[in-house]
Amino acid sequence: MALIGPIIKTALNLHDSVSSTTNHVEAQKKVLKNLLKTAKNTSFGLYYDFDGILENNDLEHAFAEAVPFYDYHKMDEQWWSRMKEGKPNITWPGVPKFLARSSGTTGKKSKTIPVTDEMIAAIKAAGTKQVSALTNFDLHDDVFESEVLALGSSTDLSKEDGFTIGEISGISASNIPEFLDSFYRPGKEISSIDDWDERVERIAKEAKNWDIGMLSGIPSWLEMMLKKVMDFHKVDSIHDIWPNLAVYTSGGVAFEPYRSSFEKLFTKPVQIVDTYLASEGFIACQQRPETSSMQLITDGGIYFEFVPFQPEYVEQDGSISNNAPVLSMADVELETDYALIISTVSGAWRYLIGDTIKFTNIDHAEIKITGRTKFFLNVVGSQLSVLKMETAITELQEKYNTSIKEFTVSAKKIDGEFHHVWYLGTETETSEEELATALDDSLQDANKNYKVARTKALKGVQVHKVQPETFSKWNDYNKKKGGQVKMEKVMDEEKFKAWEEFVSSL
C-alpha cells in the first residue's frame, strides 16, 4: 500500500494548480520583455539596440523588425564563437559553464550550444511542471513514490577550453537536485558510463533492485534497453521486473510507430506522455490526458515565433527566407505547419531550431511536432512532412499487422525520372511492390500536393525492406549510438548514396 504516494500526489497537484499558465499570449510577452531587459547590455543587445526595442509599445513587432533570423551556423560564427573563446557578455550576460553537444540527425558534425544557469533552472522548472501534470492522469498512488528511470546520454561530461560539454540530457541529469537522487535511476554512477552497451548491461544487472514507476527516453533506444533487461532476467514482460511501471515519457521522435512493439513488452497499462526537450531548451510537454498534444512552456525561458512552413518561404537547405512572415502566439492558426523560431535565456536569438510544428489547441498552446525543416521532402513539389510520412507508415502497420518502427526516404533519379525510394525496417512477408502501392495510395489520399506531384515529376515509388536493426547499425557505423540519437527520416542525395552502400554491404 502506498503511504507517501498520496501525500506526494497531493503536493504535485497543488503545485500544478498554482503554477499552470492560462494566458499564454501574455506569458510570452512577459518572457520577451525579460529576455530583452536581461541581455540589453550584451554585445548582441547593444548591436541590435534592445533598449530601443523595449521603448516600443508593440514589443513583438519591434523585435522581429530589428533582429534577423539566425540558424546555428550563423549564430555560432558571428557570436557564440567569441563566447567560446571565453569572452563574456556576448549574447547573454557572463559566460556559460556548459555547452550542449547536439546529438541531432542533421549536419556533418555536432553542434555545441550554450547552456546557462538560467536555462538549467528553466529546464528544472519545466520538468517539475511535467511531473506535476501527471496528477491529471489516472495513475495509482504507488507511482508517485516509485523510482524514475531516465535513459539519456552519459553524465560523464567532458571539459574543454573551460567549458563542461555533453548532451542536454546528460547535463540535466548531472544537475538533478540531491533530494531527488533517491528517486532517480540508473543513478549517477551508471549514468556516467560513456559506452552505451556497457551502461545498458549494468542497468540490466541492477534492474531487480529498483522499483521503477516511470520511464523516460527516446523510444528506439528505450525499447532496446527494456528487451535487454527482459532477456537478462529471462522474463516475458517488463512488469515481471517492475510491477509498478505505469508511465513512459517519450520524446525526440513520434511514439506511434513504436506503440505496437512496446505494448508487447507490457502486461499492465502504461500511460504514454509526450515531451519536447531539445539541446536549446525544454520546449513543450503533454499536460492533459484527453490529448496526445504537448503544451508549449510559454512562461519559462523561451520566447516563441512561428513562420508559416510553405515552399515560398523555405530554402532547399531548410533555412527560412528573409521575406518570410513571422507570427507570435497571438496570431497563430490551427492545423497549419510552422517553422519554430526561439529566443532563449541561453542567448539564442530568433533562432531556427529546425523543427516544424502545428497547433492543435490554441487556448491551451498545444502543439504536435510535424517534422524537420531539412526533413521536408519537396524535391518535386510533393510537400511531405515527417508527420504525414509517419501517419502513412502507421496505416501500413495496421493494414498488414506488422511493425515498422524506423524508415528513411529520399527523392532519387532512376533512368532520368524522380522516384521516392523508401527503406522500411520490417519483418513483414508482404511484398515490396504491395507495400509501395499501399504507401503511395495512403500519401495521395492524405496530401493533395503529393497527389499532383505523382501525376507530373514524381514518376514512381519504390520500397525496400530491411531488418529493423539495420537502422541502429547505421547509427553505430556513423558513431552515433546512445539514448539521444535519432534516425534521419529524409536523406539528401549524398547521404542516401552512402546509406544504400552501407545496406548493400550487410
Automatic annotation (TrEMBL):
This is GH3 auxin-responsive promoter. Residues 297-363 form the GH3 middle domain. Residues 390-494 form the GH3 C-terminal domain. It holds the Pfam family GH3_M.
